[in-house]
């Protein structure tokens, strides 16, 4: 049981939601709410009314409340009647945006009372909306604490914006929230023409939980293009500019934000031309290498570059990183995380600067900076332009294990289909970028294919067969990007494909193998078991469990580690040593297996 679960019985169920927020915040060791906010007492309210009916009920109840000369009594009645009539918090903001209030003083007094005393979420939402619309500076101090409640971040930020609160209020609000919930506050800060806000945003940490859209909003808000043109430009501005560009260039399952950032080309140019002002540190080395990887094969290739400029910037970066001071940087890494990042630099150092095949097909396998997560992308360039961001921005580049490890790209006289990218949401929603591959004499032909009429269709492409075969074999054979832990997972996965009987004898139809994270050498093997995994319907569909076998690094080479795993799977039922990490708890216990609760 987690600490938060253990504290749940202490929650004062009859307190106002404002007092409840104070209570939960005071119990939190680090002062931050969990992602999504604290759950509301009694759980989320049911959404039982259609919008039209809800607005009618709201109009009736609010009308009666505004006729009551006693705000305390009016607030108490609303707090009681709104849940009785089935009004949901989501109805409130939409309704009030269209409502004309004749007695603004009464409505303001009612809103303030509800903010302080409401126990019902819809009543609290009504209070926040009224205060945001009709209140003043004196109403600002109470609002930020309410943002830590589940479902109330958006209305609170909307109200604070309407009240034109000080920028410092929004900055303090960020400290109350989990980083996953910072986006709405950051967007509000970015929309302000305020020096204090711009300075705070310029120093904003850009870890893996910052979105690409946030990065673009920040770059525009801090006027990054102007900052990089001003003299002198300090290392902090150059480094943060590099981080923002790298974040905007990430594949996210929607069009890359860098393509919507209008000053992108002059910003890249200004930053790279001044990159020699950065001290040669590990972080700066990683930033510049990430920029080079994107300029070489990522979405920024599609920007409107004047002839020769992108190659010139790549040459500048290559030349700078090749100087003795910069080349020696990875060798000075000693801390655990620094060593992982230094190893990544060594693996990726030459990748963006190999531009030997400007025409035809080029396959780049790009491992992202560990600071951005544990992602490896197979990037296909046709005639020098990246295929996925150009034709299928809703898609994500496949891992090399999915598109290179099998013989999918090898061309034969008989055509076969290859999925080059799948949508972030689901294939049935936005489709895939798929092609058929076929050898036709001295050529290899790619034909675009629709997935049930969904997704893009690649125009026919013809490649010289010898050049195509050489490029596919080069990409398949090149594993210099692969760190040892990932090599172990690849060997385990390959062994399970080649020897399906290893898991079949234990009635395990599905498996997945990967690493525990970008800074981890632990290998994780997940095995799914039970009739629910094998396509059962009805009652048995819920009967499944997921087993997780974690294998810490023991110092042996990947081939030895993988062989030991396959040998144990061949001789011993994994239910005897893997832990249950998901699925149906009752089903697990019926098999005599202990449920792993994270403790």
Keywords for this entry:
disordered N terminus; 28 helices; 599 residues; alpha+beta; five-stranded antiparallel β-sheet; four-stranded antiparallel β-sheet
Describe the structure.
It is a single chain. The protein is of the alpha+beta class and about 600 residues long. It is about 45% helix and about 10% strand. The strands form 3 sheets. The protein has a 5-stranded antiparallel beta sheet. The protein has a 4-stranded antiparallel beta sheet with strand order 9-10-11-12. Strands 1-2-3 form a 3-stranded antiparallel beta sheet. A hairpin with a 2-residue loop joins strand 2 and strand 3. The termini are close together. The N terminus is likely disordered.
H/I helix tally: 28
Q: Report the sheet-strand fraction.
A: 5-15%
Shape: globular
Oligomer kind: single chain
Radius of gyration: 28 Å
Low-confidence stretches: 1-13
* Main beta-sheet annotation: 5 strands, antiparallel
**Average predicted confidence as pLDDT:** 88
Count the strands? 12
Q: What structural category do the secondary elements indicate?
A: alpha+beta
**Strand order, biggest sheet?**
4-5-6-7-8
**Percentage of residues assigned to helices:** 40-55%
Note the gap between the termini.
7 Å
């Amino acid at each position: 049981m987690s600490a938060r679960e253990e504290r749940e019985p202490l929650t004062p169920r009859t307190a106002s939601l404002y007092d409840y927020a104070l209570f939960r915040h005071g119990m939190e060791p680090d002062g931050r709410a969990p992602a999504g906010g604290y759950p509301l007492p009694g759980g989320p309210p049911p959404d039982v009314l259609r919008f039209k009916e809800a607005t009618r009920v709201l109009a009736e109840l609010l009308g009666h409340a505004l006729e009551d000369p006693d705000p305390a009594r009016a607030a108490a009645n609303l707090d009681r009647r709104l849940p009785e009539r089935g009004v949901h918090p989501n109805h409130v903001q939409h309704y009030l945006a269209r409502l004309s209030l004749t007695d603004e003083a009464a409505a303001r007094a009612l809103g303030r009372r509800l903010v302080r005393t409401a126990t019902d979420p819809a009543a609290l939402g009504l209070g926040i909306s009224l205060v945001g619309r009709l209140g003043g500076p004196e109403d600002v101090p109470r609002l930020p604490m309410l943002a830590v409640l589940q479902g109330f971040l958006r209305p609170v930020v909307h109200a604070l914006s309407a009240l034109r609160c000080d920028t410092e209020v929004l900055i303090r609000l960020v400290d109350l929230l989990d980083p996953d919930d910072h986006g709405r506050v950051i967007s509000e800060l970015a929309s302000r023409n305020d020096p204090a806000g711009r300075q705070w945003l310029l120093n904003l940490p850009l870890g893996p939980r910052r979105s690409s859209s946030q990065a673009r909003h920040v770059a525009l808000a801090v006027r990054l293009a102007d900052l990089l043109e001003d003299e002198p430009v300090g290392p902090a501005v150059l480094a943060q500019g590099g981080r923002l560009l790298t974040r905007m260039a990430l594949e996210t399952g929607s069009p890359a934000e860098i393509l919507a950032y209008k000053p992108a080309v002059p910003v890249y140019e200004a930053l790279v031309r001044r990159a020699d002002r950065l001290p040669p540190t590990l972080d700066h080395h990683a930033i510049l290498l990430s920029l080079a990887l994107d300029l070489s094969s990522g979405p920024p290739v599609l920007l409107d570059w004047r002839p020769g400029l992108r190659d010139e910037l790549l040459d500048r970066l290559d030349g700078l990183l090749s100087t003795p001071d910069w080349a020696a940087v990875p060798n000075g890494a000693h801390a655990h995380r620094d060593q992982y990042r230094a190893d990544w630099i060594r693996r990726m150092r030459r990748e963006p600067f190999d531009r030997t095949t400007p025409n035809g097909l080029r396959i780049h396998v790009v491992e992202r900076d560990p600071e951005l997560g544990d992602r490896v992308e197979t990037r296909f360039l046709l005639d020098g332009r990246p295929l996925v961001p150009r034709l299928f921005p809703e898609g994500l580049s496949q891992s090399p294990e999915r598109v290179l490890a099998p013989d999918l790209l090898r061309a034969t006289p008989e055509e076969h289909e290859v999925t080059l990218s799948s949508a972030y949401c689901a294939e049935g929603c936005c489709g895939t970028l798929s092609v058929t591959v076929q050898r036709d004499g001295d050529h290899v032909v790619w034909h675009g294919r629709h997935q049930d009429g969904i997704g893009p269709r690649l125009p026919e492409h013809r490649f010289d067969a010898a050049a195509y075969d050489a490029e596919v074999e080069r990409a398949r054979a090149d594993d210099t990007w692969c760190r040892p832990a990932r090599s172990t997972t690849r060997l385990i996965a390959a062994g399970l494909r080649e020897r399906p009987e290893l898991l079949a004898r234990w009635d395990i139809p599905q498996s997945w193998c990967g690493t525990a994270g970008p800074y981890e050498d632990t290998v994780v093997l997940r095995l799914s078991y039970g009739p629910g995994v094998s396509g059962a319907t009805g009652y048995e569909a819920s009967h499944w469990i997921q087993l997780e076998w974690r294998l810490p690094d023991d110092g042996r080479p990947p081939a030895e580690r993988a062989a030991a795993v396959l040998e144990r799977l061949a001789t011993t039922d994994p239910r005897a040593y893997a832990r249950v990490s998901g699925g149906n708890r009752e089903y697990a216990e019926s098999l005599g297996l202990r449920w792993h609760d994270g403790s």
